[in-house]
Amino acid sequence: MSIDQLAETAQAMVAAGKGIIAIDESNATIKKRFDGVGIECTEENRRAYREMLLTTPKLGDYISGAILYDETLRQSTKAGVPFTKVMMDNGILPGIKVDKGAMPLAGFPGELVTEGLDGLRDRLKEYAKLGAKFAKWRAVITIGEDMPSGTCIEANCHALARYAALCQEAGIVPMVEPEVLMDGSHDIDTCYEITEVTLRSLFGSLYEHNIMLEGTILKASMVVSGKDCAEQAGIEEVAEMTLRCLKSSVPATLPGIVFLSGGQSDEDATAHLNAMNQMGPNPWPLSFSYGRAMQSAALKIWSKDLVGNVAAAQQTVYARARDNGLAALGKWKK
Ligand code: 13P
């Protein structure tokens, strides 16, 4: 795989007015989402739910790619068409979550390190054969008293770089995701500081591991006030601080940055992205790779009637894709 092919995929992921839908919840995480709306977490319900999302009519108007979970990458529609074929036919690139989750970092109570490097080379080879064009690895950085430690940031960024190198070797574009959690009572300045330190460490590690940045996408968390902070920053402040932080730490050669929603409301996630694009031009396309902010409204509708409400749920998925696609151009209106 040449750098040109990786770069082409990366650019397609952040094509103007398009973004990513993250539907890569592990079975444990999707169980939590299903529990929340009273759906039993069976393999068939997970398949049917992902079929509803992926067969949304005209989803490709605003969606360039979807991140799947291992089980989903191997599944098909009820009519027997592999999900990967449905996606490619609609111009949607298949992506795959390849990390094995964030585990407690030994010696650092309360901090996490993402696992999954062992055997990753072989898994990536198989994923490439199954049709995956890009991958995702999520590192989790927690803000708290005396947290995060430098050790936690370095260990996670080192793992992200090793994962990225293996992806590029397999011809798969790595999406690198260092998520600074919103949980906590810290203010937005603290979030800025931690996000900047984390991103600088990440790009230092990517440089040390010979990662081709032209074939890499960053999935970033926005700079926001902690969820329990008394003073909540407004839309403009979040957009301005996030842009400043990214500009001070992310090389301009990167083909694009997509954001996670991280527990923001649907409307905030869209409004923040829209505001950042209105403040442009920026060094990179800025788009979305939302999980909850793309799905939660549709899941609620679907849960009330798994067969009868498919079309209504899909209309909501399409509406969220359109709003976020417009926000990726700075053209969204409330
Ligand atoms: P949220 O947008 O729900 O944070 O999920 C995105 C994601 O893929 C986190 O890894």
From TrEMBL:
Keyword Transcription regulation listed: no
Keywords: Glycolysis, Lyase
InterPro entries: Aldolase_I_AS, Aldolase_TIM, FBA_I
Any one Gene Ontology molecular-function term assigned to this protein's record: fructose-bisphosphate aldolase activity
Pfam families: Glycolytic (PF00274)
Enzyme class name: lyase
UniProt keyword Lyase, yes or no: yes
One Gene Ontology term from the biological process aspect of the record: glycolytic process
PANTHER family, sorted: FRUCTOSE-BISPHOSPHATE ALDOLASE
Protein name, as recorded: Fructose-bisphosphate aldolase
Native source organism of the sequence: Arenimonas malthae CC-JY-1
